[in-house]
Amino acid sequence: MEEKLALFKNRKRFGIEKYIDVIFKNTALVLSSFVAIILLGIVLVVFFQSFESFSRYGLKFLVTSEWNPVKDEYGAFTAIYGTLITSFLSLLITIPLGVGTAIFITEDFVPKVLREIIGSFVELLAAIPSVVLGLWAIFVMEPFFREFFVFLHNFFGWVPLFSTEPTGRNSLMAILILVVMLLPIVTSIARDSLNQVPKKLRNASYGIGASRWKTIFSVILPAALSGIMAGVLLALGRAMGETMAVTMIIGNSNAFSWSLLSPGYTISSMLANQFGEADGSQVSSLFYAAFVLMILSLVVNIFAQWLVKKFSLKY
Amino acid sequence: MIKNNKKAQKNYILSLEDVSISYGKFKAVKNIFCNFKKGDITSLIGPSGCGKSTVLRSLNRMNDLIPNCSLKGTVLFDGTNIYDKRVDAVEVRRRIGMVFQQPNPFPKSIYENIAFGARINGFVGDMDDLVELSLKKAALWSECKDKLNDSGYSLSGGQQQRLCIARTIAIEPEIILMDEPCSALDPISTLKIEETMHELKKNYTIIIVTHNMQQALRVSDMTAFFNAIEYEGGDGGKVGYLAEFNSTKKIFSSPKEKTTQEYISGKFG
Amino acid sequence: MNSLFYQKNSSRNIGDKVFTTLSLICVVIAILPLIFLVTYILIKGGAQITPDLFTLEPNPPGDDLDAGGINPALIGTLIITSIASIISIPVGVGGGIYLAEYSKGGPFSRFIRFGVNVLAGVPSIIAGVFIYALIVSTKILFGSMYSGLAGGMALSILMLPTVIKTTDEGLKLVPNELRYASLGVGASMYTTILKITLPSAFRSIATGVVLGIARAAGETAPLIFTALFSYYYITGFGDLFYEMGSLSVLIYNFALEPYDAQNKLAWSASFILVLSILSVNIFSRILAALTEKTKRV
Fold first, then answer.
1. Is the minimum CB–CB distance between C192 and chain B shorter than 8 Å?
2. Which of A22, B109, C139, C246 counts the highest number of beta carbons within 10 A?
């Protein structure tokens, strides 16, 4: 075998190559800190913009519902209440629907192929932009539910929730469209949690003669509970921040009402609705409301992350 | 100029002086003294968990990649302590190559697997010739010469490992480290690789970690036997140490230490 | 009666049947909206697909006027989404590289990963309002206020967490052996990352990024206070510094108009938007399923 001496020029790395290495690493480092910078920037900007309104109203802002640009008096209670009530109620409806769907997808009621298709369908729903869902809510969902809403008012009008004549756009519609938007989130997270329950638990339950649904309720759901809770919290954060579909169908009225059948408000739809034409101290009040929204979703988000970490599930 | 250690002998290419390696607080090996002669094949043998692979990886600073791994002592290569703060680990690895336990060819063609390392090292010359030469030295040329553009993954396990050997020798390192290179392979591939090692011995110094004592016997000139003992603190952890280091013939026929004798006759490990 | 036989009327078995039916109902409710929505959009929006749609400007709302087309909005979406991608992809991939390849899991990287998740949860309208306060009202961009550029910036804030996470996770999937192999022949870190690790992770990173772009194209809230809307053709580079239309804002504005012609345009725009987004999603699913089957040994 011929021994050709290979000529290697770069045994010692020449200066420029070492520089490139260092520059590359530091560039990546700087880029990764942009996340923190942007986050900090958002918090600071919103806080400073809201300061004027905050110093004027203090915490009263959170409990007054008068919002009058003409009189220059602002209180965000209707919007805050609206954000919370629409989010919680929509979640209340979504959780059983989502978990029920997830159970159906993870148990073997139907062949695997069918289950995968159903799962894909639900996930594709998440890809539909919010504004398109709003459009659909206005022209398709609302007429569809109109009669049902009238029925609700006529028969259950004594319940404060249904105590007003249903107008075209109201909080209940917003809740329903939120359900459509949250379903994919809750379903896929519930499905992941259910799938992560170890097979041996299921086998143990069947092994002592428990029926399928007894197993589901007594063994599998409890085991998947922490994951499902984390998913629910994530969905809650999403619901609170949801803007477009809600603002298109909720009626955008600051008049406070217990009834879900009358127009309502959420913080995000208030921002979408008024920010464009606001000026002066109205802008600062809007920023104050935005700050409240940010704090709410931050708290929910951080809590959800903590929950995920605590039960070490990856989402 | 980096200080030359006065004790560096001319024909010791690599020396370990009082080397101890720890992962965080946990000491993995302690007080290793060992000298490797140029042109030798040395095997590191011993039961699992006594730090053979850790020591091997420290010889070309691959341990740097493991978080919390720290080394005390001196590793002299060609008169220089490679753990000196001024030493560039990348340059060390261009002169001390490594073959790993699991074959890990690049997701590239067979040709590119070899050319990649050569280019990084600034190869000037005929790349085709270099590829052919390296594959021949690794006893892979006849099996591959018609499919140099096929993916490295299209080869069998044994062939992939020989490809990894070929890419290592293509950059002409002075020392080749091998971390249990045959443990994932079948006996026939193992034999082929051992033949390759005999060929490589002519031009390279080789240090190989192996669990297979017969392999150490077949292949190496010198053998280092590692063992582990309990911590003085007594919390159940074990720390590795170099029990005996001698020519292979002596280790296997008339070992000095009792533990060496017991390991070789299969009493433990 | 053999007590091993299935007892149709036992409470346990009736209970089981009831719950199975209930969960089936849940599934039906869950997939009905998608089916109705997509069919409705396809029919209502698809019926109006004419070449004019793609070439004309939208006409201002009015009783008797023909609606026009959505050309500026379509181009606007493409431009604004591209700007957002140009900003968020380098930053996101670079950040992801640092997290996956260089950081050692210490407090800094934990903080950044936490921040990524927090940023992902920020409501999209807040990103729009933030850019409004920072860029639009301060007129910092060469004196322009509402601009397509500002819209792109707001959108990039929403895209950034997705790109970082995708890169981080894609790189983590690359086996360490490959990195060792490259470093073992004496390659430096940046060579290893650029020539070995990143190419290996390319497919999964690209998929995630493309899905993120598709999602960003449908976002509205960040744009309504930054890029606003425009009825006019985009003619030159300078238009970046003025109001720019987008499909999503068009849908929002025209859905709320009381005029039938505008509503129809909203449906057409929805058709195009939804079709594009769904195709990207379905395509990447198929791609992922195919590559699963041909996984390398």
1. no
2. C246
